[in-house]
Amino acid sequence: MHQEIWNRCLLIFKDNLEWDKYKTFFEPIMPVSVKQNVLTIQVPTLFYYEYMEEHYIDLLKKTIRRVLGQDARLEYRIAVNKESTTLPGSSGQLSNPATRMFPDKLPNPYYAPGIPGKTIQINPQLKPEYSFDNFVEGECNRMAGSAGLTIANDPGKTAFNPFFIFGEPGLGKTHLAQAIGIKVKEQMPGKTVLYVDATKFRTQYVDAQLKNQINDFLHFYQYIDVLIIDDVQYFEGQTKTQQTFFDIFNHLHQRNRQLILTSDRPPVDLQGLINERLLSRFKWGLSAELKEPDYATRLEILKRRAYRDGIRLPEEVLEYVAKNIADNVRELEGALNGLMFQATQSKKDITLETARATIERLVKHSRPEISISYILHEVADYNRLNEHDILSSTRKREIVQARQIAMYLSKQFTKNSLKSIGNQLGNKDHATVLHACRTVNNLMETDRLVKGQVDALAGRLRQLC
Ligand code: ADP
Ligand code: MG
Questions:
Q1: Domain 122-289 has CATH 3.40.50.9100
Q2: Per-residue pLDDT tens over the stretch 333-355
Q3: pTM for the complete prediction?
Q4: What CATH topology corresponds to 2-100?
Q5: Which residue from 175, 178, 230 has its CB within 8 A of the most atoms of ligand 1, so it is best to mutate?
Q6: Residues 407, 434: contact at Cβ < 8 Å?
Protein backbone atom coordinates (compact mmCIF):
# COMPACT_ATOMS: atom_id res chain seq x y z
CA MET A 1 0.00 0.00 0.00
CA HIS A 2 2.65 2.55 1.01
CA GLN A 3 4.74 1.52 -2.01
CA GLU A 4 1.81 2.20 -4.28
CA ILE A 5 1.19 5.60 -2.79
CA TRP A 6 4.87 6.43 -3.00
CA ASN A 7 4.95 5.38 -6.64
CA ARG A 8 2.19 7.84 -7.35
CA CYS A 9 4.19 10.54 -5.58
CA LEU A 10 7.28 9.60 -7.58
CA LEU A 11 5.43 10.16 -10.82
CA ILE A 12 4.59 13.68 -9.73
CA PHE A 13 8.17 14.33 -8.60
CA LYS A 14 9.45 13.08 -11.91
CA ASP A 15 7.17 15.46 -13.74
CA ASN A 16 8.29 18.42 -11.71
CA LEU A 17 12.00 17.91 -11.41
CA GLU A 18 15.04 17.76 -13.57
CA TRP A 19 16.13 14.23 -14.18
CA ASP A 20 19.37 14.34 -12.20
CA LYS A 21 17.73 15.90 -9.14
CA TYR A 22 15.00 13.32 -9.24
CA LYS A 23 17.55 10.53 -9.49
CA THR A 24 19.82 11.92 -6.79
CA PHE A 25 17.34 12.96 -4.18
CA PHE A 26 14.08 11.12 -4.71
CA GLU A 27 15.02 7.68 -5.90
CA PRO A 28 17.03 6.75 -2.80
CA ILE A 29 14.01 7.43 -0.57
CA MET A 30 12.13 4.40 0.69
CA PRO A 31 8.49 4.50 1.71
CA VAL A 32 8.00 2.88 5.12
CA SER A 33 4.35 3.12 5.99
CA VAL A 34 1.07 4.94 5.58
CA LYS A 35 -1.08 5.28 8.65
CA GLN A 36 -4.22 7.33 8.22
CA ASN A 37 -2.92 10.56 6.81
CA VAL A 38 0.73 10.12 7.73
CA LEU A 39 3.20 8.93 5.18
CA THR A 40 6.56 7.85 6.59
CA ILE A 41 9.58 7.74 4.37
CA GLN A 42 13.12 6.69 5.07
CA VAL A 43 16.09 8.85 4.08
CA PRO A 44 19.74 7.87 4.46
CA THR A 45 21.00 10.61 6.73
CA LEU A 46 19.98 13.53 8.85
CA PHE A 47 21.73 15.80 6.43
CA TYR A 48 19.60 14.39 3.65
CA TYR A 49 16.46 15.05 5.66
CA GLU A 50 17.47 18.63 6.23
CA TYR A 51 18.34 19.09 2.64
CA MET A 52 14.95 17.79 1.52
CA GLU A 53 13.13 19.98 4.01
CA GLU A 54 15.04 22.99 2.88
CA HIS A 55 14.91 22.52 -0.86
CA TYR A 56 11.85 20.48 -1.65
CA ILE A 57 9.40 21.25 1.10
CA ASP A 58 6.84 22.83 -1.22
CA LEU A 59 6.94 20.08 -3.76
CA LEU A 60 6.74 17.41 -1.05
CA LYS A 61 3.82 19.08 0.64
CA LYS A 62 1.84 19.63 -2.52
CA THR A 63 2.49 16.13 -3.76
CA ILE A 64 1.46 14.21 -0.68
CA ARG A 65 -1.62 16.40 -0.35
CA ARG A 66 -2.55 15.57 -3.89
CA VAL A 67 -2.11 11.86 -3.27
CA LEU A 68 -3.29 11.52 0.34
CA GLY A 69 -5.64 14.44 0.83
CA GLN A 70 -5.50 17.91 2.33
CA ASP A 71 -4.47 17.01 5.87
CA ALA A 72 -1.76 14.61 4.81
CA ARG A 73 1.49 14.71 6.79
CA LEU A 74 4.95 13.50 6.10
CA GLU A 75 7.33 11.90 8.57
CA TYR A 76 10.91 11.00 7.99
CA ARG A 77 12.81 8.11 9.29
CA ILE A 78 16.56 8.29 9.25
CA ALA A 79 18.35 5.06 8.54
CA VAL A 80 20.84 4.41 11.30
CA ASN A 81 22.30 0.97 11.01
CA LYS A 82 19.35 -1.18 11.97
CA GLU A 83 17.72 1.33 14.25
CA SER A 84 15.99 4.43 13.10
CA THR A 85 14.89 7.81 14.22
CA THR A 86 11.66 9.49 13.26
CA LEU A 87 11.45 13.18 12.57
CA PRO A 88 8.49 15.34 11.66
CA GLY A 89 8.43 16.62 8.14
CA SER A 90 7.08 19.39 5.98
CA SER A 91 6.94 21.74 8.89
CA GLY A 92 9.99 23.81 8.23
CA GLN A 93 12.70 23.78 10.82
CA LEU A 94 12.66 21.67 13.93
CA SER A 95 12.26 23.79 16.99
CA ASN A 96 15.35 22.71 18.87
CA PRO A 97 18.21 21.49 16.74
CA ALA A 98 20.43 20.81 19.74
CA THR A 99 18.20 18.04 21.03
CA ARG A 100 17.73 16.30 17.72
CA MET A 101 18.37 12.65 17.56
CA PHE A 102 21.67 12.64 15.82
CA PRO A 103 22.96 9.28 14.75
CA ASP A 104 26.58 8.71 15.68
CA LYS A 105 27.61 6.69 12.71
CA LEU A 106 25.99 7.88 9.57
CA PRO A 107 25.88 5.44 6.71
CA ASN A 108 26.41 8.47 4.56
CA PRO A 109 26.08 7.80 0.87
CA TYR A 110 28.09 10.94 0.14
CA TYR A 111 31.16 9.42 1.62
CA ALA A 112 31.92 7.02 -1.13
CA PRO A 113 34.83 4.77 -0.19
CA GLY A 114 38.13 6.28 -1.28
CA ILE A 115 39.55 5.17 -4.55
CA PRO A 116 42.64 3.13 -3.72
CA GLY A 117 45.89 4.53 -4.98
CA LYS A 118 44.34 7.80 -5.98
CA THR A 119 45.59 10.94 -4.26
CA ILE A 120 44.46 14.43 -4.94
CA GLN A 121 46.62 17.49 -4.59
CA ILE A 122 45.25 20.01 -2.16
CA ASN A 123 46.92 23.30 -1.41
CA PRO A 124 47.31 23.16 2.37
CA GLN A 125 47.01 26.96 2.76
CA LEU A 126 49.98 27.10 5.13
CA LYS A 127 52.26 30.10 5.58
CA PRO A 128 55.92 29.12 5.89
CA GLU A 129 56.65 31.82 8.46
CA TYR A 130 54.32 30.12 10.94
CA SER A 131 56.77 27.30 11.49
CA PHE A 132 57.84 25.71 14.77
CA ASP A 133 61.26 27.26 14.19
CA ASN A 134 59.67 30.68 14.46
CA PHE A 135 57.50 29.75 17.42
CA VAL A 136 59.09 30.88 20.66
CA GLU A 137 58.37 28.60 23.56
CA GLY A 138 57.79 29.90 27.03
CA GLU A 139 55.82 29.16 30.16
CA CYS A 140 52.78 30.65 28.49
CA ASN A 141 52.61 28.05 25.73
CA ARG A 142 54.76 25.12 26.82
CA MET A 143 52.05 22.52 27.08
CA ALA A 144 50.29 23.56 23.87
CA GLY A 145 53.60 23.75 22.03
CA SER A 146 54.87 20.37 23.06
CA ALA A 147 51.52 18.70 22.44
CA GLY A 148 51.60 20.30 19.00
CA LEU A 149 55.01 18.82 18.28
CA THR A 150 53.93 15.38 19.45
CA ILE A 151 50.96 15.54 17.11
CA ALA A 152 53.08 16.76 14.21
CA ASN A 153 55.28 13.68 14.59
CA ASP A 154 52.38 11.28 14.66
CA PRO A 155 49.20 12.91 13.34
CA GLY A 156 46.00 11.09 14.15
CA LYS A 157 47.77 8.48 16.22
CA THR A 158 48.07 10.23 19.57
CA ALA A 159 45.34 10.68 22.16
CA PHE A 160 45.30 14.38 21.30
CA ASN A 161 42.56 14.17 18.73
CA PRO A 162 41.06 16.64 18.30
CA PHE A 163 43.67 19.07 19.49
CA PHE A 164 41.81 22.13 20.71
CA ILE A 165 43.92 25.27 21.09
CA PHE A 166 42.31 28.21 22.82
CA GLY A 167 43.34 31.65 24.01
CA GLU A 168 42.80 35.36 23.58
CA PRO A 169 43.43 36.95 20.19
CA GLY A 170 47.03 37.55 19.22
CA LEU A 171 48.55 34.85 21.40
CA GLY A 172 49.64 32.49 18.64
CA LYS A 173 46.77 30.06 18.00
CA THR A 174 46.92 30.38 14.24
CA HIS A 175 50.71 30.22 14.33
CA LEU A 176 50.80 27.02 16.39
CA ALA A 177 48.05 25.30 14.43
CA GLN A 178 49.84 26.09 11.18
CA ALA A 179 53.19 25.01 12.63
CA ILE A 180 51.77 21.52 13.14
CA GLY A 181 50.57 21.42 9.54
CA ILE A 182 53.92 22.64 8.25
CA LYS A 183 55.84 20.03 10.21
CA VAL A 184 53.59 17.21 9.05
CA LYS A 185 54.12 18.29 5.46
CA GLU A 186 57.90 18.46 5.96
CA GLN A 187 58.10 15.00 7.45
CA MET A 188 55.35 13.28 5.51
CA PRO A 189 54.87 15.07 2.19
CA GLY A 190 52.29 12.48 1.13
CA LYS A 191 49.86 13.53 3.85
CA THR A 192 47.04 15.85 2.88
CA VAL A 193 46.94 18.83 5.19
CA LEU A 194 44.40 21.61 5.04
CA TYR A 195 44.15 24.85 7.00
CA VAL A 196 40.86 26.69 6.77
CA ASP A 197 39.26 29.21 9.04
CA ALA A 198 35.74 28.61 10.25
CA THR A 199 34.31 31.50 8.27
CA LYS A 200 35.80 30.25 5.05
CA PHE A 201 34.60 26.73 5.74
CA ARG A 202 31.12 28.10 6.13
CA THR A 203 31.29 30.13 2.93
CA GLN A 204 32.48 27.09 1.03
CA TYR A 205 29.65 25.04 2.46
CA VAL A 206 26.94 27.58 1.62
CA ASP A 207 28.41 28.01 -1.82
CA ALA A 208 28.41 24.28 -2.41
CA GLN A 209 24.79 24.11 -1.35
CA LEU A 210 23.79 26.86 -3.72
CA LYS A 211 25.57 25.22 -6.60
CA ASN A 212 24.28 21.79 -5.68
CA GLN A 213 27.80 20.58 -5.10
CA ILE A 214 27.47 19.25 -1.59
CA ASN A 215 28.80 15.89 -2.72
CA ASP A 216 31.97 17.48 -4.02
CA PHE A 217 32.33 19.49 -0.85
CA LEU A 218 32.06 16.44 1.36
CA HIS A 219 34.30 14.36 -0.89
CA PHE A 220 36.93 17.02 -0.73
CA TYR A 221 36.98 17.03 3.06
CA GLN A 222 36.94 13.26 3.20
CA TYR A 223 40.47 13.20 1.79
CA ILE A 224 42.13 15.30 4.45
CA ASP A 225 44.64 13.67 6.79
CA VAL A 226 45.20 16.73 8.98
CA LEU A 227 42.35 19.21 9.09
CA ILE A 228 42.92 22.53 10.84
CA ILE A 229 39.86 24.68 11.49
CA ASP A 230 40.75 28.08 12.88
CA ASP A 231 38.49 30.16 15.13
CA VAL A 232 35.62 27.72 15.54
CA GLN A 233 33.78 30.28 17.66
CA TYR A 234 32.65 31.73 14.33
CA PHE A 235 30.48 28.67 13.85
CA GLU A 236 28.17 30.37 16.33
CA GLY A 237 24.57 30.05 15.25
CA GLN A 238 25.43 28.30 11.98
CA THR A 239 23.35 25.22 12.61
CA LYS A 240 23.69 23.67 9.19
CA THR A 241 27.39 24.33 8.90
CA GLN A 242 27.91 22.82 12.32
CA GLN A 243 26.01 19.70 11.40
CA THR A 244 27.97 19.26 8.23
CA PHE A 245 31.19 19.78 10.12
CA PHE A 246 29.96 17.23 12.67
CA ASP A 247 29.61 14.67 9.85
CA ILE A 248 33.07 15.49 8.55
CA PHE A 249 34.54 15.41 12.03
CA ASN A 250 33.14 11.94 12.67
CA HIS A 251 34.22 10.64 9.33
CA LEU A 252 37.79 11.81 9.80
CA HIS A 253 38.04 10.91 13.46
CA GLN A 254 36.85 7.38 12.87
CA ARG A 255 39.62 6.97 10.34
CA ASN A 256 42.31 8.31 12.68
CA ARG A 257 42.80 11.52 10.81
CA GLN A 258 44.01 14.45 12.84
CA LEU A 259 41.73 17.37 13.70
CA ILE A 260 43.09 20.63 15.03
CA LEU A 261 40.72 23.32 16.19
CA THR A 262 41.31 26.77 17.60
CA SER A 263 39.01 29.09 19.47
CA ASP A 264 39.16 32.33 21.39
CA ARG A 265 37.62 30.58 24.39
CA PRO A 266 37.68 27.15 26.03
CA PRO A 267 35.11 24.55 24.98
CA VAL A 268 32.93 25.12 28.07
CA ASP A 269 32.46 28.72 27.05
CA LEU A 270 31.25 27.67 23.61
CA GLN A 271 28.18 26.27 25.28
CA GLY A 272 25.12 27.75 23.67
CA LEU A 273 27.08 28.76 20.57
CA ILE A 274 27.92 25.31 19.31
CA ASN A 275 25.62 22.32 19.07
CA GLU A 276 26.03 20.07 22.13
CA ARG A 277 26.97 17.00 20.13
CA LEU A 278 29.70 18.78 18.25
CA LEU A 279 30.88 20.47 21.41
CA SER A 280 31.20 17.13 23.16
CA ARG A 281 33.52 16.05 20.31
CA PHE A 282 35.69 19.10 20.89
CA LYS A 283 36.38 17.80 24.38
CA TRP A 284 37.43 14.33 23.29
CA GLY A 285 41.12 14.96 22.76
CA LEU A 286 43.27 17.59 24.38
CA SER A 287 42.44 21.23 25.06
CA ALA A 288 45.43 23.47 25.60
CA GLU A 289 45.48 27.12 26.47
CA LEU A 290 47.81 29.78 25.15
CA LYS A 291 48.36 32.36 27.84
CA GLU A 292 49.73 35.87 27.77
CA PRO A 293 53.47 35.69 27.21
CA ASP A 294 55.72 36.38 30.18
CA TYR A 295 58.52 38.93 30.00
CA ALA A 296 61.25 36.47 28.96
CA THR A 297 59.12 35.10 26.13
CA ARG A 298 58.19 38.57 24.96
CA LEU A 299 61.81 39.59 24.84
CA GLU A 300 62.81 36.48 22.94
CA ILE A 301 60.01 36.96 20.42
CA LEU A 302 61.10 40.55 19.84
CA LYS A 303 64.74 39.56 19.38
CA ARG A 304 63.96 36.88 16.87
CA ARG A 305 61.51 39.02 15.01
CA ALA A 306 63.88 41.98 14.81
CA TYR A 307 66.63 39.66 13.59
CA ARG A 308 64.36 38.10 11.00
CA ASP A 309 63.22 41.47 9.70
CA GLY A 310 66.79 42.79 9.64
CA ILE A 311 66.15 45.55 12.18
CA ARG A 312 69.02 46.32 14.51
CA LEU A 313 67.86 47.60 17.86
CA PRO A 314 69.79 48.21 21.06
CA GLU A 315 69.11 45.63 23.77
CA GLU A 316 67.70 48.31 26.09
CA VAL A 317 65.12 49.27 23.49
CA LEU A 318 63.99 45.67 23.12
CA GLU A 319 63.77 45.35 26.88
CA TYR A 320 61.79 48.54 27.09
CA VAL A 321 59.29 47.30 24.52
CA ALA A 322 59.00 43.88 26.17
CA LYS A 323 58.34 45.52 29.54
CA ASN A 324 55.72 47.93 28.31
CA ILE A 325 53.76 45.89 25.86
CA ALA A 326 52.45 42.93 27.71
CA ASP A 327 49.07 42.11 26.29
CA ASN A 328 49.77 39.98 23.30
CA VAL A 329 52.24 39.07 20.61
CA ARG A 330 50.44 40.88 17.85
CA GLU A 331 50.87 44.17 19.71
CA LEU A 332 54.57 43.44 20.20
CA GLU A 333 54.89 43.08 16.46
CA GLY A 334 52.95 46.30 15.99
CA ALA A 335 55.42 48.07 18.25
CA LEU A 336 58.38 46.75 16.29
CA ASN A 337 56.80 47.89 13.06
CA GLY A 338 56.17 51.30 14.61
CA LEU A 339 59.83 51.59 15.55
CA MET A 340 60.97 50.51 12.14
CA PHE A 341 58.71 53.06 10.50
CA GLN A 342 60.03 55.76 12.78
CA ALA A 343 63.63 54.84 11.97
CA THR A 344 63.08 54.97 8.23
CA GLN A 345 61.22 58.27 8.47
CA SER A 346 63.81 60.03 10.57
CA LYS A 347 66.73 58.17 9.01
CA LYS A 348 68.24 57.88 12.48
CA ASP A 349 69.04 54.92 14.65
CA ILE A 350 66.55 54.15 17.32
CA THR A 351 67.60 55.05 20.84
CA LEU A 352 65.81 54.38 24.08
CA GLU A 353 64.61 57.98 24.06
CA THR A 354 63.02 57.87 20.62
CA ALA A 355 61.62 54.40 21.27
CA ARG A 356 59.98 55.66 24.44
CA ALA A 357 57.99 58.29 22.60
CA THR A 358 56.77 55.83 20.00
CA ILE A 359 55.85 53.15 22.51
CA GLU A 360 54.11 55.58 24.81
CA ARG A 361 51.94 56.67 21.96
CA LEU A 362 51.14 53.06 21.15
CA VAL A 363 50.39 52.15 24.72
CA LYS A 364 48.14 55.15 25.15
CA HIS A 365 46.23 54.30 22.05
CA SER A 366 45.66 50.75 23.01
CA ARG A 367 42.80 50.45 25.41
CA PRO A 368 44.00 49.77 28.93
CA GLU A 369 42.66 46.57 30.35
CA ILE A 370 40.37 47.14 33.28
CA SER A 371 40.91 44.39 35.79
CA ILE A 372 38.24 42.36 37.52
CA SER A 373 39.67 43.37 40.88
CA TYR A 374 39.21 47.02 39.94
CA ILE A 375 35.59 46.36 38.98
CA LEU A 376 35.07 44.56 42.26
CA HIS A 377 36.48 47.55 44.09
CA GLU A 378 34.15 49.94 42.29
CA VAL A 379 31.06 47.78 42.84
CA ALA A 380 31.87 47.36 46.53
CA ASP A 381 32.42 51.09 46.87
CA TYR A 382 29.13 51.96 45.18
CA ASN A 383 27.17 49.58 47.38
CA ARG A 384 29.12 50.43 50.53
CA LEU A 385 30.02 46.80 50.90
CA ASN A 386 33.21 45.06 51.78
CA GLU A 387 35.02 43.38 48.86
CA HIS A 388 35.48 40.26 50.98
CA ASP A 389 31.74 39.98 51.49
CA ILE A 390 31.16 40.05 47.75
CA LEU A 391 33.69 37.27 47.30
CA SER A 392 32.23 35.17 50.12
CA SER A 393 29.59 32.57 49.47
CA THR A 394 26.85 34.39 51.34
CA ARG A 395 23.39 34.39 49.84
CA LYS A 396 22.29 37.72 51.27
CA ARG A 397 20.31 39.39 48.56
CA GLU A 398 22.17 42.68 48.34
CA ILE A 399 25.51 40.89 48.25
CA VAL A 400 24.41 38.38 45.63
CA GLN A 401 23.20 41.26 43.51
CA ALA A 402 26.44 43.19 43.88
CA ARG A 403 28.36 40.06 42.88
CA GLN A 404 26.14 39.61 39.86
CA ILE A 405 26.69 43.20 38.80
CA ALA A 406 30.45 42.76 39.19
CA MET A 407 30.24 39.69 36.97
CA TYR A 408 28.16 41.50 34.40
CA LEU A 409 30.55 44.44 34.24
CA SER A 410 33.56 42.13 34.08
CA LYS A 411 32.03 40.48 31.04
CA GLN A 412 31.40 43.87 29.46
CA PHE A 413 34.69 45.54 30.25
CA THR A 414 37.33 42.83 30.31
CA LYS A 415 38.39 40.12 27.93
CA ASN A 416 38.19 37.45 30.61
CA SER A 417 36.32 34.25 29.92
CA LEU A 418 33.23 33.40 31.96
CA LYS A 419 35.29 30.79 33.76
CA SER A 420 38.00 33.23 34.67
CA ILE A 421 35.45 35.82 35.85
CA GLY A 422 33.83 33.15 38.03
CA ASN A 423 37.18 32.14 39.46
CA GLN A 424 38.05 35.67 40.41
CA LEU A 425 34.67 36.59 41.82
CA GLY A 426 34.17 34.08 44.59
CA ASN A 427 35.20 30.87 42.89
CA LYS A 428 31.99 30.40 40.97
CA ASP A 429 31.62 28.33 37.82
CA HIS A 430 31.00 29.67 34.34
CA ALA A 431 27.28 28.83 34.45
CA THR A 432 26.84 31.06 37.50
CA VAL A 433 28.49 33.92 35.65
CA LEU A 434 26.34 33.35 32.60
CA HIS A 435 23.26 33.33 34.82
CA ALA A 436 24.43 36.54 36.51
CA CYS A 437 24.87 38.29 33.17
CA ARG A 438 21.38 37.30 32.08
CA THR A 439 19.85 38.30 35.41
CA VAL A 440 21.44 41.73 35.35
CA ASN A 441 20.40 42.18 31.76
CA ASN A 442 16.81 41.42 32.69
CA LEU A 443 16.88 43.54 35.82
CA MET A 444 18.12 46.50 33.82
CA GLU A 445 14.78 46.49 32.06
CA THR A 446 12.63 46.16 35.14
CA ASP A 447 14.51 47.61 38.09
CA ARG A 448 15.43 51.28 37.96
CA LEU A 449 17.84 51.06 40.87
CA VAL A 450 19.83 48.30 39.22
CA LYS A 451 19.82 50.16 35.94
CA GLY A 452 20.98 53.33 37.66
CA GLN A 453 23.79 51.49 39.39
CA VAL A 454 25.01 49.65 36.30
CA ASP A 455 24.90 52.80 34.18
CA ALA A 456 26.81 54.79 36.77
CA LEU A 457 29.49 52.14 37.21
CA ALA A 458 29.78 51.58 33.47
CA GLY A 459 30.21 55.33 33.04
CA ARG A 460 33.09 55.36 35.52
CA LEU A 461 34.77 52.39 33.90
CA ARG A 462 34.38 53.86 30.45
CA GLN A 463 36.30 56.94 31.50
CA LEU A 464 39.28 54.72 32.05
CA CYS A 465 39.23 53.38 28.51
P1 ADP B 1 45.92 34.22 17.23
O2 ADP B 1 45.62 33.29 16.14
O3 ADP B 1 45.91 33.60 18.60
O4 ADP B 1 45.08 35.47 17.21
P5 ADP B 1 48.40 34.53 15.82
O6 ADP B 1 48.80 33.12 15.69
O7 ADP B 1 47.83 35.19 14.63
O8 ADP B 1 47.41 34.72 17.06
O9 ADP B 1 49.66 35.35 16.36
C10 ADP B 1 49.78 36.74 16.22
C11 ADP B 1 51.19 37.07 15.79
O12 ADP B 1 52.07 36.78 16.84
C13 ADP B 1 51.63 36.23 14.60
O14 ADP B 1 52.38 37.03 13.73
C15 ADP B 1 52.50 35.15 15.22
O16 ADP B 1 53.54 34.76 14.35
C17 ADP B 1 53.06 35.83 16.45
N18 ADP B 1 53.29 34.89 17.55
C19 ADP B 1 52.36 34.46 18.42
N20 ADP B 1 52.89 33.62 19.32
C21 ADP B 1 54.18 33.50 19.01
C22 ADP B 1 55.27 32.76 19.56
N23 ADP B 1 55.12 31.98 20.63
N24 ADP B 1 56.46 32.88 18.96
C25 ADP B 1 56.62 33.69 17.89
N26 ADP B 1 55.66 34.41 17.33
C27 ADP B 1 54.44 34.32 17.87
MG1 MG C 1 44.18 33.45 14.64
A1: no
A2: 888 888 888 888 777 888 888 88
A3: 0.59
A4: GMP Synthetase; Chain A, domain 3 (3.30.300)
A5: 175
A6: no
